[in-house]
Design goal:
heterodimer, A: 12 helices, B: mainly alpha, 12 helices
Chain lengths: ~270, ~290
């Protein structure tokens, strides 16, 4: 029995890891052996990594990705926490409409926004700027933050706030001094999920930018053409793919339990 | 006193919800309206002076275009096949994560790796894996095969990339559903002589129906807007464009705002129909 489960486990692990192993291996292959088709490198090298960090566009893309991702996450968390608290704790007209509306956005086909946003942002001078990407990222991260956070808030006992209000705290004080500190673990999880969403986006990143001023790392990679026109970009693309993936994978693995809770809280509790 | 409290609470709630609501409306509401307006106009950035109201003729153009219907068919095929595979595979992975006796923590952790990978990065991995000469998977095929240059083989690879990346998410949603099945019920059924298969189809599946429907709804709508994998793997070549890719090419490559917006509106309508069918016909409960 244990042996059989062990074998099944191995299958699942191989499923998850072999494609990753392949990209990592490709990124360490020496240019002369990159087309040998072997699963593991026969000649190891760091040169692909050295190459992409000599490339200003890629480092610039990383800076854009980190900056845009962090700012968008921060704004989405701020607004999302406020709305989620209201949904979890207060009675007010339009609550169901707000929930329905954010659900609608969560399922919205992003391409349907790309055409009009492309035009609107060009008119407003937001095209190819950080705010031009931060705006759609905040919008699409908000449903996620509202859902996950309101699920986390609902798990905090109401008695705590009632006690605080008894002691003379205003609703805002009850929220800020009692709930927020208790909700920090849930907020960290939600922030990670929101950041992963921004970091992962590709469609907005290639449609609403036209230069390295705001182009994020995944979009930059898709423009790699190799050091010179005679050089194949395979090694550089593989190395860049590993660089943008590793931080997220490390995050996900460190916060594994919380992320599972966060990913499933909004969807199934309902 | 209580009335005052209730009014305070309402006022606080409105203030708390206002920023999020305003941002969501500003970034989606106006653009949607704008794209409906654009879809009724001849608006081509290459010929800006020709802009004019032309009623529904963009819709006739798109709906009578074989390219659009090919893209629509390809998207529907990718959606149905990948969601079906993900459901089965996700259920198996969920059962493993839930029931395994050894290394449960390890399995639950490792399964999150595909979720964490940037879609574009993973897509390049698959692309090179199937490139003749470079790829370890292409080398397993008979010599001279280039799977990313044929329509069917390309679609199969796109589905593979999509399934690999999103099965863990499906598995997590299903695992939460599994956790809601009471252990005692299964034990009682086993006592009464129900075998493993009967317990799964007669008890586990019906109890998991809400979780399955929500997972299917999420993934179907998500798969229907597939973009990243197609862009990297084929960029729509060999008749493999999804509707998102086609709309993107009309905008960025063609600079045709009218046609691009028309496609945007049509995609939006398709998504609304899918959601409606799930919620009304299958009774998927919208998460509250």
């Amino acid at each position: 029995m244990r042996l059989r489960w062990g074998l099944i486990d191995v299958l699942v692990v191989l499923y998850a890891l072999i494609p990753v192993l392949w990209i990592v291996s490709l990124s360490f292959k020496d240019p002369s052996t990159i087309t040998d088709g072997a699963l593991l490198p026969t000649k190891w090298t760091w040169s692909n990594y050295a190459g992409i960090f000599r490339n200003d566009d890629f480092t610039r893309g990383l800076v854009n990705s980190i900056g845009i991702g962090l700012i968008a996450t921060f704004i989405a968390m701020l607004f999302g926490t406020m709305a989620a608290y209201a949904i979890a704790r207060l009675t007010f007209p339009g609550k169901r409409a707000l929930i329905g509306f954010s659900l609608l956005i969560a399922m919205f086909p992003q391409i349907s926004l790309v055409t009009p946003l492309f035009q609107i942002e060009r008119a407003l001078g937001l095209f190819d700027t950080w705010p031009g990407l931060i705006l759609p990222y905040v919008t699409f991260a908000l449903p996620l933050t509202i859902y996950t956070l309101s699920a986390f808030f609902k798990e905090i006992p109401t008695e705590l706030e009632r006690a605080a209000k008894m002691d003379g705290a205003t609703p805002f004080q009850a929220f800020w001094k009692v709930i927020v500190p208790l909700a920090v673990p849930g907020m960290v999880t939600t922030a990670i999920l929101a950041f992963i969403f921004c970091w992962n986006d590709f469609l907005f990143a290639i449609s609403l930018t036209s230069s390295s001023a705001a182009r994020t790392a995944p979009a930059t990679i898709s423009f790699f053409t190799g050091g010179s026109q005679f050089e194949d970009p395979t090694g550089s693309i593989a190395a860049a793919a590993v660089v943008i993936t590793i931080p997220i994978v490390v995050f996900v693995l460190l916060f594994q339990r919380r992320i599972v809770a966060g990913l499933t809280s909004g969807a199934v509790k309902g | 006193m209580t009335a005052g409290r209730a009014r305070d609470e309402r006022r606080l709630a409105l203030w708390l919800c206002a920023p999020a609501t305003l941002v969501m409306i500003a970034v989606t509401g106006w653009p949607i309206l704008y794209s409906v307006l654009l879809s009724l106009q001849r608006a081509d950035l290459r010929f800006p002076q020709d802009q004019a109201w032309i009623g529904l003729s963009n819709y006739t153009t798109v709906l009578s275009s074989p390219h659009w219907w090919t893209a629509f068919g390809v998207t529907a095929l990718i959606t149905v096949v990948s969601v079906a595979i993900e459901l089965v595979l996700g259920m198996l992975v969920a059962l493993v994560m839930f029931r395994t006796l050894v290394g449960r923590g390890l399995v639950r952790t490792v399964v999150l790796v595909p979720y964490g990978i940037v879609t574009v990065a993973a897509a390049y991995g698959w692309k090179y894996a199937w490139t003749p000469g470079t790829g370890w998977l292409a080398n397993l095929l008979p010599a001279g095969q280039a799977p990313l240059t044929g329509q069917w083989s390309s679609i199969a690879i796109i589905i593979l990339a999509e399934v690999w990346k999103t099965t863990p998410f499906m598995a997590l949603l299903l695992m939460t559903g599994l956790a809601l099945v009471p252990e005692e019920l299964l034990r009682a059924a086993a006592m009464d002589g129900a075998n493993r298969r009967q317990r799964f189809t007669k008890i586990v599946l019906p109890l998991m129906k809400p979780a399955i429907l929500v997972a299917l709804l999420f993934r179907t709508l998500d798969a229907f807007r597939i973009f990243d994998n197609v862009y990297v793997l084929t960029d729509g070549a060999h008749d493999t464009a999804s509707v998102s890719i086609t709309a993107y090419h009309n905008l960025i490559g063609g600079l045709n705002l009218g046609i691009g917006s028309t496609m945007s509106v049509l995609i939006l309508i398709s998504v609304a129909i899918i959601a409606f069918v799930f919620i009304r016909v299958f009774g998927a409960a919208a998460p509250r």
